[in-house]
Amino acid sequence: MPSPDARSTGLATGAPVNVPAPRQTPPYDERSPDARRTGLATGAPVNSPPRTTTRRVTTDFRQEFIRFTIARNVLRFGEFRTKAGRLSPYFFDAGLFYDGESLGQLAQFYAKAILAADIGFDMLFGPAYKGIPLVAAVSIALAGAGRNVRYSFNRKEAKDHGEGGSVIGAPLSGRVLIVDDVISAGTSVRESVNLIRASNAIPCGVAIALDRMERGSGSLSAAQEVRASYNIPVISIATLDDLMAYLRADPRREQHLAAVGRYREQYGVSAHA
Known about the structure:
The protein is α/β, with parallel strands linked by helices and 273 residues long. It has helices spanning 33-37, 54-71, 100-117, 131-144, 187-198, 222-230, 240-248, 254-267; strands at 15-16, 75-81, 87-92, 123-126, 150-159, 165-169, 175-179, 202-211, 234-239. It starts with 14 loop residues before the first strand and ends in a 6-residue tail after the last helix. Residues 1-17 and 30-58 have low confidence and may be disordered.
């Protein structure tokens, strides 16, 4: 059967090839020892005091994020066709964070990654359409961590009535951190940067869920192209290297590790490129 168009998945990083509809999974257990260790237990603030070193806490939340996405069936393994026509051994579909509980937990992971990156920013911006629910949820998570910041998002077409214009929420000003699910072709980032600069504000970074660390048509990944083009950092909750570290620690997933490793060798980029 022909593979479905990757664009039909909306928030996906690649389109599945003859993959059945995602099975229903039980809610992620926030009360698990791993959740308690990373500060995700019910009622725990995002910036709970670490019990070990900062580096250990950072590693923990990245690995916990991988575990969370697998439990939610957002991250799956098999054979999937990407937009570039490559056959990928894994599939990350952020469109499956479609209930309040999972979106809230996702936002906490974003908040952890943003705070761990320790970059200066004054407000958040979510590009339409995928970034709209994300930017609102992440601003709430940051406020729960003691960092209350303004946020805004844009609409695809400007209005000439009501609030008018293309930006909704706080006026764009100061240092603006862009919040999106992934970076693929970089179109969303380019449009966001241009919009922010047109408002005399400063784009200071991009926060995404997963960095596939996969080169595009050239030698750089989409995230690396953003860094090179706009001289701004790209913050990710987790990277392909984090995924491989998770698989390496679980002998039950040895076959997936081998497949992802081969894909990394063929299409991957260096973390320091």
